[in-house]
Amino acid sequence: MSIKHGLLTILSTGPSHGYLMRQEFEARTGGTWPINISQIYSTLQRLERDGLVTTLDDSEPVAYSITAAGRTAVQNWWYSPTLRSTPERSEVSIKIALAVTTHGIDIERVITAQRIETMRALRDYTILKANLPSDSDAETTGTPPPTKTATEQAHSNAWELVLDSYIFTLEAEARWLDHIETRAPQLQRQVPNKPTAGATAKSGSAAIDSTGAAK
C-alpha cells in the first residue's frame, strides 16, 4: 500500500492534520509500516498539487480535507487489484538463487541458517497473536477482558489480520526452503565452471597464435 492511498483513506473519514494522520495510519496497520512526519507532509503536498486534497482555511496546525477527485482516487484504489507484475525483491530468494549458481557455497548451510531465522520469526509472530486478548480468554479465566473503545477494538482486529499475513508468509517460506533443500544440491552440480580471467586471456592468446594473426 502506498502512503498516498493510506492518507486518502484516513481523510475520507474527515479532515485531519499530519500528526494525527500519522498516528491513525500506524494504529490501523499495527505499526508495521512506520513513517516519519516529513514523509506525511511531503505526500500531502503532492496530493494537494494533484488536486486530491486541500487545506482548510485558518487551521493551525494546517489541516487537510479530501477533494472529490481524491475520493474518486481512493475508491478506484479500493476496488482495483494490487498488481503483482513487479514482485518485491526478496533477499532470501536472491541469496538462494545466487548460492545454487555459485561453486563452493555450502547450500545446505545457507538453507539451515535461513530456516532457523524463519522459524524464529514465525514463533514470535505466533506468540504475539496468541497474546491478543479475546472473549474466549475471559470465558476460560473468568477475568473480564480489558475494556476497549470501538476504535481500539477495530485497530486490534486490524493488527491480528496483519499478524496472520506475516504468519502465512513465513509458513510458505518454510515450505519453500524444504523444497529448495531437495533440489539445490542437484542444481548446484549442474553449474558449469566459469573460466578465470587469466585462463580466458591465455586461451585468446593461443587462438591468435594458431591463426598467425598476432605474428
From TrEMBL:
Name assigned to this protein: PadR family transcriptional regulator
Chain ranges of the Transcription regulator PadR N-terminal domain: 7-75
Residues annotated as domain Transcription regulator PadR C-terminal: 89-181
Bias-annotated ranges (Low complexity): 196-207
Organism: Jonesiaceae bacterium BS-20
Family matches, as Gene3D superfamilies: Winged helix-like DNA-binding domain superfamily/Winged helix DNA-binding domain
Chain positions covered by the region annotation Disordered: 133-154, 187-215
InterPro entries with a match to the protein in the record: Tscrpt_reg_PadR_C, Tscrpt_reg_PadR_N, WH-like_DNA-bd_sf, WH_DNA-bd_sf
